[in-house]
Automatic annotation (TrEMBL), chains A, B:
The lineage of its organism: Bacteria, Bacillati, Actinomycetota, Actinomycetes, Micrococcales. Its cofactor is Mg(2+); Mn(2+). The record marks 138, 188 as: Important for catalysis. Coiled coil: none annotated. It catalyses: (2R,3S)-3-isopropylmalate + NAD(+) = 4-methyl-2-oxopentanoate + CO2 + NADH. This is 3-isopropylmalate dehydrogenase. It is an enzyme of class 1 (oxidoreductase). NAD(+) binds at residues 281-293.
Amino acid sequence: MRTVRLAVVGGDGIGPEVVEQGLRVLRAAVDGEAEIATTEFRLGAARYLETGDVLPDDELAAIAEHDAILLGAVGGVPGDPRLKDANIERGLLLKLRFALDHYVNLRPTRLWPGVVSPLRDAGEVDFVVVREGTEGPYVGNGGAIRVGTPAEVANEVSVNTAFGVERVVRYAFEQASARRNGLTLVHKTNVLTFAGSLWHRTVDAIAPEYPEVAVDYLHVDAATIFLVTDPARFDVIVTDNLFGDILTDLAAAISGGIGLAASGNLNPSGAFPSMFEPVHGSAPDIAGTGKADPTAAILSTALLLEHLGMSEAAARITAAVTADLAARDGSPRTTAEVGDGVLAALPP
Amino acid sequence: MRTVRLAVVGGDGIGPEVVEQGLRVLRAAVDGEAEIATTEFRLGAARYLETGDVLPDDELAAIAEHDAILLGAVGGVPGDPRLKDANIERGLLLKLRFALDHYVNLRPTRLWPGVVSPLRDAGEVDFVVVREGTEGPYVGNGGAIRVGTPAEVANEVSVNTAFGVERVVRYAFEQASARRNGLTLVHKTNVLTFAGSLWHRTVDAIAPEYPEVAVDYLHVDAATIFLVTDPARFDVIVTDNLFGDILTDLAAAISGGIGLAASGNLNPSGAFPSMFEPVHGSAPDIAGTGKADPTAAILSTALLLEHLGMSEAAARITAAVTADLAARDGSPRTTAEVGDGVLAALPP
Ligand SMILES: CC(C)[C@H](C(=O)O)[C@@H](O)C(=O)O
Ligand SMILES: CC(C)[C@H](C(=O)O)[C@@H](O)C(=O)O
């Protein structure tokens, strides 16, 4: 039997709670086919407050030895003064994405049967955002002078390379080709002319290799309009790290909420383990109350299995979530009850 | 009688059509109180294709001699190869904003009575976005090396200064104080740490001067969620140039469309004329068909009058638009018919 070595970073707030349900469903879905050998890494705001560590080198190295990573959510209570000097997001979450070269941040959006969109007329929403994960304004290439004086200047540099853009654009074309043959590049080429030109030229250069894919372009501002007025028009959106961050929260909102949004931080080359996480944060305000919806974490385990080549087990999880969502009657269920519901709906 | 010297840049596509209706309503609203002396400037993609000029220095200087600017929309047919080397947006629209130091880009959003939001349950939407207009990733401070080779690197620099952030944040506090005392800073402080810190510290430093204003902070991704799930929570949003661009298109979408979204590019110091324009673009596909809704252009003239201190005339325009929108029965009206309707509803 195959063994999957899984690094588990529950993190803070509701992170460990939703990961627990994700692991239950994951184990059940691969039962008889694979064994999930987990290593827990206690990382996040709580660990930082206790030990001062954010992501020690030896733990990063240990995580990198695994086949995949399942992450809950990291981040303490907003405004906690003790966290002021630690940027857990940068030092832990983004560090993992960058160190493990997660250049594809894959974020599917579906309006599941039975789920009510805040939009009157959402139509059939089923698209994926292929967000670049290792470049753009996320590189941490900023700086400031005369900090705290009236003459302060604070810069942030968005770094974009042909190397980085090409690999994620290729991935997006592959996705489009395997889906409904629609690819929309989203950028702001009329303002960010250098980066925009690189993205545009890259898409244009690769397009002839995928003659079946219809390529479209939208400025990021216009893309938000269409996500509200006609989200069904999208199949695959490819975009940079920051635009992808913004658009995927909006995508989650229009398709029934951040509680259902799964994501994969992928290193498609396989050089490093990929990392799967719900798009939502640690929500410290509801931690421990049992109110957190683990669906996004559960769906993230389906992306994990897909990535590891276990498509049938992945499909079983998706089918179970579909059945569970369709059966929900709107009465609140605890985190564990949602896990129970999905487990019960898991096809044999 | 007061004379308002108005520079008019109709621009491309539907720009001149909507500006024509805006001017009709503007003139009627100030009748007896002021005379509108217009100077037309033929600028935009059409002019560029004819003469090769985007914004000649002498025309910029002539525009700057006016009391205010009314702009329709600029930009040619997307993908027109003859426009490939001219970036009309950068060379004309952004050049005007930067040269005339329009550091406040004021974008009100209202769900008008009678207008149907694409959201099932929008609530009472009535907020303004105070978008910084002269800094951030819009400064044009990018560059690229090895263009067209596999080793290309394309950078974009977001420049943020204490000078620039403080003046727009002060303006936003004034707005909040004159409205419902709510101010939400939107940024991405956990990723853009240098710029984010400057924005955050600036808001924190000014807040004690406005003890009546409740200050809130949202990451830009989370802000898109709330704009969909609870837009009524916002009063004043203050944010940087790019986030403001993105959020205001989304705001227009949730409140009934870009056809109703007005904006003012303000130089509150009065050193340069302010510029008023609908948020929408030139929509070349419907130019000349009479399908363009001039409401956003008309509402932009209300912002113009407000800025010039003619609040009563501004209020008359707003009242007329309110009445006209409430009376619409959904059957299509031409651009001129909407102008007629607003004119007819104008209080004496
Ligand atoms: C926590 C934050 C750094 C992160 C991001 O901006 O990528 C989050 O918003 C996300 O989308 O995963
Ligand atoms: C045309 C473009 C440069 C402009 C902007 O990005 O500011 C537009 O989108 C706007 O919002 O006025």
